[in-house]
């Protein structure tokens, strides 16, 4: 497999190779690749969209995530499939709650995975990730995972963390790993919550404060 | 005295301005202790906490509930290159609500380094001891009994014994603990003596007002004084700003947001401390060694962290020392930390019940050339900081050494198979296999590195050109701004940090009160 190190590219709009590397994947040169260009515009393959709809991911990004997840979690007896746990939808929902900027970067990263230009530069493979066969995809993923470039390993790690976190956080997967789950009868969802806000009056009885202020108004 | 009140974001629907003696930003180990000590002196205290007010009502012992609700960035805080995962609390009680309940007094050798290298004055065992003793009584800090060790911790206990290595039972801040093993998800029975259930309610009873879901965004400075803390109210459900503003006008401000957020608030306020704010960030970088045993270990059950070994803390000049401890094992965090991908990863996960893990907590910031990492701001509107921590040769050497020794301990305790945390794991079945660790790659994201202890960023010291606060916890360049949390540590500790923060914050309370 031919690998052309990204750092040999002139990083668009960046002053030096050193600063580009320091900036890392997110916000750095690698994501800048996700933009224009003939190869970058080659379409990837879509998968059927979830009936519950998507909130953050585009159909294309969703297709990349599903493909990645199938490699991260191949079918195995006793383990629910990524489809059964609606894994990519879970990730989509998780991204609605992330701090500003994160969802955008994950979307860009998924775009980059499917970007034919990236595929060409890294693997001499000018086709979108989602259009490759399962075996070809595995080779590409291994390229990201074991790359000599920290930038690519970062991208791989980001997707791996999202997918494994969403999958094994789901109670439907616990039986597969022998985790019995939290002990029953311990958690009290109606436990009383201390808020303060009472004070003793002259008779020693507690009364609610008349003004809802903090400190000295 | 009238009792104070804990407010949450949903109740704060109108802009408001409050005045008080002391505004404390952050409710963790530093803020919690400081708030109580100041309220006890009769001062009016307002505390701001950007996390939510989550209590045992919310603590359902599930990872998928706990990480998004109780940790920074929904549990996804990392260095910029994702090479180091940072577990850091973000909730009322801060890290004390979600830590694994281990308390060490600060090692003397560390306090000596702070004095001799960083010019810290008046912070030593004799000045901290009365505060530690008070905290140990209040938080029921005591050694965890040998007969209650879970099997995960027994591996470290037995393995070190067979090798003749040092070992000790750890002290935990728990009371009526029923050994559930969910410390990291918030204690559902309030057994863990976190700030959430001890000093914060104590302080509120003494009049302190706590605003949860309230994020301090900027300190307003006039001349040599902080004149206001400007905060935004966050929606408890989304953690995003609601648009409601809170302004606190205090005689004195104490920043206790921890090692990432405290320097972050100062930087947002234009307080760079001559370029020192955000420097010397230390993480106690951690590597984990996994081992499979024939019999179930069930590392999700029982007190998670109760045995330690200081055998390799002092490895001589030029080498980082490390403390060996035991982490809890739950599926979600394990899956992320566990090595491998695809079918191999699944196969490991299928044996989760048989897994033991040891961790090596490496001591950073003590070698003369070790400056640790940095915290900086990103573009306006981004909810994250830029966190860099370059792993250097001394880090890799320590990781390699620690992985060998942890594997040795696990094999001595009867492990069938030991796995390194390399992206493609090294598998070891006998002592002879340990040499394979020498040939494995040591580079970012080829070896999983984590951090549960963030320190530094507002380093204490004598020289304003090399530090941010003085030995009285006061920001060098202002008269009424203090920092009292792990961010003031000039170095890491080599032990779990909460008790050091408690001691320092209680010591700091005298200086803060003196400035009112």
What does this structure look like?
- Chain A is an all-alpha fold and 217 residues long.
- In chain A, α3 packs across α8 and α4 packs across α8.
- In chain A, 41% of the residues lie in helices and 2% in strands.
- In chain B, strands 1, 2, 3, 8, 9, 10, 11 and 23 form an 8-stranded mixed β-sheet that branches.
- The two termini of chain B are 19 Å apart.
- The longest helix of chain B is centred in the C-terminal third of the chain and has 20 residues.
- Chain B folds into 2 domains: 299 residues, FAD/NAD(P)-binding domain; 159 residues, Cholesterol Oxidase, domain 2, CATH 3.30.410.
- Chain B is globular, with a radius of gyration of 22 Å.
- Chain B has 516 residues and is an alpha/beta fold.
- The chains are: A mainly alpha (217), B alpha/beta (516).
- The interface between A and B is large, with 70 and 76 residues.
Spell out the key features of this protein.
A: mainly alpha; two-stranded antiparallel ribbon; 9 helices; disordered N terminus; B: 516 residues; alpha/beta; FAD/NAD(P)-binding domain; Cholesterol Oxidase, domain 2; eight-stranded mixed sheet; 13 helices; 23 strands
Helices and strands, with pairings:
The complex is a heterodimer of chains A (217) and B (516).
Chain A: H1 17-23, H2 29-32, H3 59-72, H4 87-95, H5 102-114, H6 116-123, H7 134-145, H8 150-168, H9 174-177, E1 199-200, E2 206-207
Antiparallel strand pairs in A: 1-2
Helix pairs in contact in A: 3-4, 3-5, 3-8, 4-8, 7-8
Chain B: E1 5-7, E2 16-25, H1 29-40, E3 45-48, H2 63-70, E4 84-86, H3 95-98, H4 108-118, H5 125-138, E5 141-143, H6 151-163, E6 168-169, E7 171-173, H7 199-205, E8 209-211, E9 214-222, E10 225-234, E11 241-255, H8 258-268, E12 281-282, E13 286-292, E14 307-308, E15 322-325, H9 331-337, H10 343-350, E16 355-362, E17 374-377, E18 385-388, H11 393-412, E19 417-419, E20 427-428, H12 436-439, E21 449-451, E22 455-456, E23 481-483, H13 498-514
Parallel strand pairs in B: 1-8, 2-3, 2-11, 3-8, 4-21, 11-23
Antiparallel strand pairs in B: 5-7, 6-14, 9-10, 10-11, 12-22, 13-16, 13-19, 15-16, 17-18, 19-20
Helix pairs in contact in B: 1-7, 1-13, 5-13, 6-11
